[in-house]
Amino acid sequence: MKAVKRVLVVGSGIGGATAAYAMRKAGLDVHCIDIKPETSMAGSGICLLNNTMRALETLGLGKACLEVGMPFSLFREFDSSGQLMRSHPAPPSCGIRRAALACILESAAIEAGAVLEKNLSITDLSDTGHSVEVKFSDGREASYDVVVAADGVYSKLRQKVFGEEFGTKFAGQSVWRFNARLPAEVDGFCLFRAPSGKTLGIFPTSPETCYMFYLENSANPLRIPEGEAHLIIRERLAEFDAPIVRKALDEITGPEQVIFRPLDITLVPEPWHRGRVVLLGDAAHAPTPHMTSGGGMAIEDALVLADCLGGSESVEEALGDYSKRRFTRVKTIYDASLQLCLNEQEDALANKDKSAALLMQTYQYLAQPI
């Protein structure tokens, strides 16, 4: 007899929504909640690498992502004026707006029969050893066989169940993100390098849009004055005079168009469960974005966790197997991402070839089955 029938997923982001869908497909009764009142239609883009698309295709969601996103398989490198320096094939990927991906994942979960509720959080939970008794912010109480903490890098559930020692640390960089109209020159993953070592990344997220990002070094987390992000990003990218960059910056007229955050990272040692509460995605492992794999790792987590829980007769064995199947792979990506981050902080130009070799080595690793 199945040991798990009813699951609560806390967090309806990329990992949580995918988990809700995957577990419903595995025959489990799924309740998914999110503290936010609604799914944001703003936000940046995400690059779904080949391994992520493979996982989504396994779930039957790959085609939907390709239809609204933008597939590409090229890497191009430009100087700060927009002159092409090199171009070569890259592993097949799909750029997509985060809001579009969220819509695909949440809709799939709901259509599969998962109950998805927004503006709802946990006020208390108790693991009895046979179930997890949960109290919600609206006063309701319910019982579950397993609770999945998919509530992000600053997971409150992780803090409550695992303790403060598994919190985050600053990686030495912050990221600036914004969207723009898609220029004809951006037909793959593009990097623009300035003489100072600054690097601006761009990739398409739909036939009409692209996503731009810039990573900034600092010894301590940066704090940006409220309402000034759209002005400061112009200063940060002043030495990039490539026409497509200047045009994109001209389209930024308000602070709401720019997303800025310090890169806080964490990697929780295995096992990723305490009793019947288990971590997933950024709650368990939040890497720097240099391998563009944070969301992809969460999607793979969801696929593996659903497989482990779907037919298991033991909760402890299922959750233990999940950690064992995921930890080495996740740590490899976490370590590579952090090393790329450190290479940029040390000397981005001097370490360019070393970083490119590490990227290709890790892409090859990602191609391995999960």
TrEMBL record:
Spell out the InterPro entries in the cross-references: FAD-bd, FAD-dep_Monooxygenase_BioMet, FAD/NAD-bd_sf
GO MF assignments? FAD binding; monooxygenase activity
Q: What residue intervals traverse the membrane?
A: none
**What keywords tag this UniProt record?**
Monooxygenase, Oxidoreductase
Entry superkingdom? Bacteria
Q: Give the coiled coil ranges.
A: none
- All copies of the FAD-binding domain together span 6-336
Q: Please state what the protein is called.
A: Monooxygenase
Q: Which organism is it from?
A: Pseudomonas jessenii
